[in-house]
Amino acid sequence: MSILRRRKGPELPPKPEKTHENEIEDDKDKKKKASEETSHKKVMRFGCIDNCCWFIGCVCSIWWLLLFLYNAMPASFPQYVTEAITGPLPDPPGLKLHKEGLIAKHPVVFVPGIVTGGLELWEGHSCAEGLFRKRLWGGSFGEVYKRPLCWVEHMSLNNETGLDPDGIRVRPVTGLVAADYFAPGYFVWAVLIANLARIGYEEKTMYMAAYDWRISFQNTEVRDQTLSRIKSNIEAMVATNNGKKVVVIPHSMGVLYFLHFMKWVEAPAPMGGGGGSDWCAKHIKAVMNIGAPFLGVPKAVSGLFSSEAKDVAVARAIAPGVLDKDLFRLKSLQHVMKMTRTWDATMSMIPKGGDTIWGGLDWSPEEGFNCDLKKKKSNNSQVVDQNGTVAEGSTTKKAHYGRMISFGKDVADANPSEIERVDFRDAFKGHNLANSTCEDVWTEYHDMGFAGIKAVADYKVYTAGSIIDLLRFVAPKMMKRGDAHFSHGIAENLDDPLYDHYKYWSNPLETKLPNAPDMEIFSMYGVGIPTERSYVYKLTPTSDCYIPFQIDTSAESGKEEEGSCLKGGVYTADGDETVPVLSAGYMCAKAWRGKTRFNPSGIRTYNREYDHAPPSNLLEGRGTQSGAHVDIMGNFALIEDVIRVAAGATGEEIGGDQVYSDIFKWSEKIKLKL
What we know:
The protein contains 23 helices and 17 strands.
């Protein structure tokens, strides 16, 4: 047997012995390899962040490129593109009326509303160094981002007096620039001013009656003598324009402020301006109220109760807890509540007239309103005379608008006899919830215990008649100041000397219009936009420094409820997105129509409604046919009406009443002694 032998391979050279230098090289190689692996892992781990940074960078680059192109393009280019899409644009109202031969005649006074007037710093604490005469409100709002807590401190008022805190003075900006733009590119009065200028108006015939919209109306006179300044400016404008009376154009809360002024100017000193009972008749041709919250707004209730409105509630639903938590060391809603509850003027917009005006548990003037506003667009504009009515609108499932706050959708829908309520007014508030961590965001809720919070929820449903008591229960300090400056009831006897006090002057249901039979009053407002009317609430889960109540965004109308008005915990009715038609229209439609106890001299009143039409494309901006609360200031039809009256026309000459809503039908349901 043959024996196979494996061939011996070539001998390998002996491995060199590892020296100290070789070991060092090996260590370096290992470290380099480990470093590369770690680097690779880091890239993989933070790839998402890198992608986000690249995305943000691309967006910013594109934005700056578009901004550059926008500023580089001819001024007529946006108009050219818009006309190519929608056809030729109409002339601006001022240009159109200038071609018709209209010229400036009556001096014009603008009265801005809440939040639209600029405020600037005159004295502040150390954190506000370098901000002397810089805008804290309006403009770019840069200080909100740079030093938010300092900004909140300086925008807040004294919680006891409702006036300036020690060492802080914030004052209204003066002149037309006070409220022409709210922020860069966001007009308020600018479009109206520009169109008036086209028929010959200039600064000597236009006056912006700027005031500090945070403080109570009478305190604007006590602190700043604002009412006296308005009086002297109007007198000067009449005197320097050959005795031509002024046309006053208040907007939003400015409407209530000017109502207060008309009573103040006639009242004897020291409480009033001492102008006498014929001052308004001598100096005012017309008052053209835009977006007037004559009878208040439900939005003010949700704002004071939980620092919410529909938009905030939706934001909470999208990002649960973000606004409530200590994000970036800011408890956002708590700071907002702490600040806004020191602004006494907000209490002027709490709904007035109680259940008589706004409805009760089982009725409301708007009962049967169909919230599918698109279907109602088929209704034509109706022009009615001083005693006219409009046809009834469509009906849908009954919404209990009179229940301004309901705790739970089941309560909002329930039969009144099925609602079991426990009165909260004398309830024990329980132990104090405040602790040392809440000092910076103290609200009056921190003085309530769980028993008080439960008592509020156990009352189940609040109408306009019980809202005032609710606010007095949850915010007694705020309402103590508010009760000293405002009233929200209905006067039984307007000749009672009780109503000579200034707290009643901004409530049209507790005061008389001036003795000025030749004066005209217009209520001009948008319609066709869902507007907050009542709310479904729930209790908030307990946490530190929390606001115990919030709008229940899960409350929605069922699919079977066609045309229903509940969405995201908010029942909506017809209006301009802020002020319901009922509040804006009732006084001129009925309570002041003809000679009544509220209008003893028979001042002529007109309702001018503007049906909302959103802009057809982005290049149209905020639109020329908008009925929204602020955007209506750029509505061409409204601006034309204002210019015609300023140029000498009467209410009848511009068409009298123009009505799209059911305001006359709803007004007939309100049983108010006239």
